[in-house]
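Students often ask why we bother encoding 3D structure as a string. The short answer is that it lets us treat folding as translation between two languages. Here is a chain of 363 residues written in the first language.
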Amino acid sequence: MTLVAARPTAPSPLAAEVARVMICDDSVVIRGALARMLESDPSIKVVARVADGSAAVAEAAKSPGSIDVVVLDIEMPVMDGITALPLLLRADPELRIIMASTLTTRGADIALRALRLGAADYLPKPAVSAIADDSFRRELLAKVKGLARLRRRPSVSVAPPLRPRPILRPAPRLLAIGSSTGGPQALFTLVQGLGKRVPVPVILTQHMPATFTPILAEHLTRIGGMPCAEAVDGAPLLPGHIALAPGNRHLIVEAVGTTLRARLSDGPAENYCRPSVDPMLRSATATCGGRVLMVMLTGMGHDGRDSTAALIAAGGAAIAQDEATSVVWGMPGAIAQAGLCDHVLPLPDIAPRVLDILKGARA
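And here it is in the second language, the structure alphabet:
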């Protein structure tokens, strides 16, 4: 066998850039732990550590543009994170802010409210004893690097291959959505764009702790035209309603006669996730005979790739969020690069295309 040297490729203009991060937390222990995690990745540099929102605002105002991402605690003395959020964005409108919230109902509500006020993402903050957890570290690094990239507005990457055939026929019976890292903010945009005009049931799996999913459902209901609620075992899936997989349970689709119903499963995690997109979409494909439209939003990993392949083989269709607007182009990138997509679109363009497809318009 003859080995041929690969032609060297020019590095991306952003490849050498370091994500500059400010940590704002009133605990010196947490500040130190987060800094060590972040700087374990050579593409990240912690440029400031402060103990309250007032100090964070002063630091950001010194030199707008010198900080890419702020990890901002919510509950702090002097000035809390919610008070600091608009002041930080006023000091530097392009700043990307991650709200670090406790794993409580109140923490979830404040974090998701902050997303609607301009925060870029949230991070459920474990107890100090569990702060070194590897899954937390992976999520923190992925969000920081992804948001720093989005701040710099990289050029659009080369388009992946699309499936060379017409969009779904006959019309879909179900709209399925999968999302993970960066998902809540993307979901706000998508659901708001869809409005009240969705003529089929919507099922949604977002990788999220159990404390957060009921709060996410409430926020999606407030910003969109469609009501959203955690799925209830045995409940019918209704047109124009979003059934959200509860945290730590898979959402499964079954048919009773002609009625589609939700089933909840405590089955094993898939792709290290529960809920997972794969069991949701796999069951939807089997139940609806492939008459499903899948939308894959920003997320880490490849959850949903295998079930999307089965959906396409059964006659379904898939849309992926593009790399330029994704915090992490893992889940959408996995199906796009596998050639399973009918469309790869910027986030703002997905809702109009979904509505066109559901109305039966040709691509």
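Translate back mentally: The first strand starts at residue 19 and ends at 24. Keep this in mind for the problem set.
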